[in-house]
Write a structure and sequence with these properties.
Elements (H helix, E strand, L loop, with lengths): L2 H17 L7 H18 L4 H14 L4 H17 L19
Length: 102
Amino acid sequence: MSDDSRAMTEWVTAVRRELGLEDAVDTDALVDRILDLTADVAHGVSRPSAPVTAYLLGLAAGRADDLTVATNDFAGVLSRLAEGWGADTERGVAANDQSRRG
């Protein structure tokens, strides 16, 4: 394990403990998913948009019944939105509009 990986694991563990989220999320899956999302946003939209997007994802997922499912679902929606951000196409369907999503 690299020093960065070790530091990230220790940090995320401490943050989960401080926020009372020890049992709420799978650390490995969470870190990988959020890093993928923020990379997509940083490259497809702008670097400053990445942490703000991660924060907004957390707010949205926190409102859901199943935090893990919502995080994965919303992260996928946002990654696709970021990847197509520069395209001349209509913006995506809202992530919380289940009736319009496939």
